[in-house]
Design brief:
By secondary structure, this protein is of the alpha/beta class. It is built from seven helices and eight strands, in the order E-E-H-E-H-H-E-E-E-H-E-H-H-E-H. The strands form two sheets. Strands 6-5-4-7-8 form a five-stranded mixed sheet, with helices on one face. A three-stranded antiparallel sheet has the order 2-1-3, sandwiched between helices. Strand 5 and strand 6 (109-119) form a beta hairpin. The longest helix has 18 residues, at 121-138.
Length: 213
């Protein structure tokens, strides 16, 4: 038998009804659909109650992961489970860049590229989206959505142009070669697949996240 799940307590600083909640089901009702919701999980009630008396800014980003919703909950609020979720990771600006795509429904990694030298996170997000669209095109699939948590990445793909301000160097030539290839693919292959924004504040970290925050 596996180890039982440890109980968690959830603080909602900004939501429909702020407070401390003993289950994610109860807490999620307070943050779902609330613009700019502020919430976080804690391992004990005393810790959560003490945090509630403080400011969200004192705790934001200090856990390795944001609270993640179960797939059934995501589906209930309208997230398409039969989709590809993508993310990028970059250590420094610029820095070693990698990106990947994951099947949301079953968590299977579909592709993982890199690391490439001297890239940026926005470039990685752009490349990840294009890679996912190209993968779906090879399958003859024009309906499966692609989710990204990057507004820049989504915007650049829709414009069919990676609007990075990164300076070209001898070290990052492989990155710019990938950008040129991706831009050509977008120009030559109009895609009908829905390109959707992953709402991290409401849904937790995108499941393709590299977990390095």
């Amino acid at each position: 038998m596996g180890k039982p799940n440890k109980p968690k307590f959830y603080v909602v600083w900004k939501g429909h009804q702020p407070g401390v909640y003993a289950s994610w089901d109860a807490a999620s009702r307070q943050v779902s659909g609330f613009p700019g919701a502020e919430f976080k999980s804690f391992s004990s009630r005393p810790e959560a109650e003490a945090a509630y008396l403080g400011a969200y800014s004192s705790f934001a980003g200090k856990d390795t992961k944001s609270v993640k919703r179960p797939l059934a909950e995501l589906e209930r609020i309208g997230v398409v489970l039969d989709s590809i979720v993508v993310d990028a990771a970059c250590s420094g600006v610029p820095g070693p860049l990698e990106y990947r795509g994951v099947s949301l429904r079953d968590g299977v990694e579909l592709f993982h590229q890199g690391p490439f030298p001297d890239g940026t996170n926005n470039i990685g997000e752009f490349l990840a989206i294009v890679h996912a669209l190209a993968l779906l095109a090879r399958r003859g699939d024009s309906t499966t959505p692609v989710y990204s948590d990057s507004r820049n990445g989504i915007s650049w793909v829709r414009q069919k142009r990676c609007a990075t301000k990164l300076e070209r160097t001898s070290a990052n030539q492989p990155v710019f070669a990938l950008i040129a290839r991706a831009e050509r693919w977008l120009r030559d292959n109009p895609s009908a697949n829905p390109l959707l924004k992953w709402e991290t504040q409401e849904w937790g970290e995108i499941p393709a996240d590299f977990g390095r925050k």
